[in-house]
Design goal:
550 residues, Rossmann fold, Trna Endonuclease, Chain: A, domain 1, 19 helices, six-stranded parallel sheet, alpha/beta
Length: 550
């Protein structure tokens, strides 16, 4: 069969790609399954899964038997059922996308004569069976036989995609090759690694969603969104993925995490940088400073002008912290770059994480409208349970009250209640002057240095601190960043925490990241900007210290 297929495919007018003796290890939750495909043939019309049965084969009362010297041994499974099962395994585990390429299954019994597979014409699969008669006929072509099967199914299914272009076929072959060299899913050992990131329920969530190509997950801080993203990348480590986020510090952190895990097939990029690096260098930094509607139209125009050449293509795209970029053209990117047919919202594979409560000015930006559009193409899942420690749940609970506050009179009772509690994960300190607050921070960071605790603490300042005078002409932010045991967070040191130094940044720059202990520096009149305060509070895992300049 190998020689016949190779010869016939080489002489075919179509460009065929043959994969032989493929072994896969798939996992569904706690169940592991192995499949072995004799041949997989791919051309621009689709793909064929071939199951070969050598020797004598006979059918009696619908049961298939191996026949040898008058002894008939029943097969454990009908060959056509076996081939069809393999076909669906390839779909279910994302080796193929059902909306991108048509796949059918055939059988070959090269030593057996068989005119029909059933006496019932509607059940007869002879048109999908290659037997000894065809195999011995030099005028028959196995490539033409496979093409005829694909053509017949094309006629019966009006929704079958059109033939693949040369670029689309190459893209699928390039995508498939690593999956066939390595296991297409994670192994037993890597399941243990994923469990080090995820609680059991998170892993079950990932597995329950994995049959879906398009997934939209909504959840607040601590519900496991980013850890599921890491598990997803781990699971599809042999496929070419893209991870996008808005925050440059989060980008640097995730990039380092994946590098340390050896997950090199997923590109991690800040959204602005990703657009600016696209071919032709159409996008500039200024495009992201103005009206996002103008940016969206520019992205759509760029895609339309380059859809036939130059656009990158990914097996999957992950959008983390989507509330930062939903109104900045990310839906057009998903539609054009995670499907070989450039219809990714309907046919591609993506994983989007969204939290409307962390979207700045979400109502005027119509974030919920964009989220509804994205989720209408996807399996939508709500993560409601905070997976972190109990103190974090208490912090998030208070943050929810702060977020919904409209005036200082609303927030003051919440803070007064915190100040009255002992051994609470949130502490509040008031300062009458900038100098007094700066002295507190100086002593606090010296204590962390002396106790070698700096790595577990992060100081975050409200954005107003950049313009608030601290000492002389120096602003509060600049004074803090120059303290002896303080280091301003950058993309270069975000992964280099030290027990000697406490890292420092603004609240919004730290969005998407977290640490055990967070110190927030805010100004009393800035209470009304509750969004920023909410973001800062939810960065804390164990404890939160509020330093308020009255």
């Amino acid at each position: 069969m190998y020689k016949r297929i190779e010869s016939d495919c080489n002489n075919s007018s179509l460009e065929w790609h043959m994969f032989y003796d493929l072994n896969f290890s798939f996992r569904d939750g706690t169940t592991k399954s192995e499949i072995q495909i004799d041949f997989l043939l791919v051309c621009n019309k689709g793909a064929i899964v071939l199951e070969v049965k050598g020797g004598g084969v006979v059918i009696k009362n619908g049961v298939y038997y191996y026949s040898d010297q008058g002894v008939d041994t029943p097969m454990k499974r009908r060959p056509f059922d076996q081939a069809d099962h393999y076909k669906w395994q390839l779909f279910n585990h994302h080796v193929f996308n059902i909306n991108e390429i048509y796949v059918d299954s055939v059988c070959a019994f090269p030593h057996a004569k068989m005119e029909h597979t059933s006496t019932n014409p509607s059940d007869d699969l002879k048109w999908k069976l290659w037997t000894k008669d065809e195999h011995d006929d030099p005028n028959m072509s196995f490539a033409d036989f496979c093409e005829s099967v694909l053509d017949e199914k094309h006629k019966k299914n009006g929704k079958v995609p059109s033939d693949l272009s040369k670029n689309q076929l190459d893209s699928i072959i390039n995508r498939l090759a690593p999956s066939f060299i390595y296991s297409s899913n994670y192994s037993e050992s890597s399941v243990e690694e994923i469990l080090s990131w995820l609680q059991v329920r998170d892993l079950e969530t990932l597995e329950s969603l994995s049959p879906n190509d398009r997934i939209f997950i909504e959840g607040g801080p601590g519900t496991g969104k980013t850890t599921i993203a890491k598990g997803y990348i781990k699971k599809y480590s042999q496929q070419h993925g893209l991870y996008l986020c808005w925050n440059k510090l989060l980008h640097a952190r995730i990039k380092k995490v994946l590098k340390d895990e050896g997950l090199n097939n997923c590109e991690v990029m800040q959204y602005e940088s990703f657009l600016m690096r696209l071919p032709n260098h159409t996008f500039k930094h200024d495009d992201f400073q103005g009206n996002p509607t103008v940016l969206v139209e520019k992205i759509k125009t760029y895609i339309a002008d380059n859809k036939d050449s130059g656009l990158p293509l990914y097996d999957y795209i992950i959008v983390d912290e989507a509330h930062d970029i939903l109104d900045k053209g990310i839906l057009a990117i998903l539609d054009s770059m995670c499907s070989i047919r450039r219809t990714g919202l309907a046919d591609g594979r993506f994983l989007v994480f969204f939290d409307n409560e962390q979207g700045y000015d979400s109502e005027s930006r119509f974030l919920n409208d964009y989220a509804r559009e994205a989720s209408s193409f996807a399996a939508k899942f709500l993560l409601l349970d905070n997976k972190r420690v109990q103190t974090n749940r208490e912090i998030v609970s208070i943050a929810e009250k702060v977020k919904d506050s409209q005036t200082f009179s609303d927030i003051e009772p919440v803070l007064n209640d915190i100040e009255s509690k002992k051994d609470y994960p949130i502490s509040v300190h008031h300062f009458s002057s900038a100098m007094e607050l700066l002295q507190y921070v100086k002593v606090f960071t010296e204590e962390r240095h002396n106790k070698q605790e700096g790595k577990n603490y992060t100081i975050l300042a409200h954005s107003s601190m950049r313009y608030l005078t601290g000492i002389g002409k120096m602003g509060m932010y600049d004074v803090i960043s120059k303290l002896k045991y303080v280091s301003e967070l950058t993309v270069d040191n975000v992964n280099l925490g030290s027990p000697d130094i406490v890292q420092f940044s603004t609240i919004l720059s730290f969005k998407g990241l977290e640490n055990h202990h967070i110190v927030l520096i805010i100004k009393k009149e800035e209470y009304l900007k509750c969004f920023e305060l909410y973001i800062g509070m939810t960065r804390a895992i164990v404890s939160l210290n509020l330093l308020i300049l009255d």
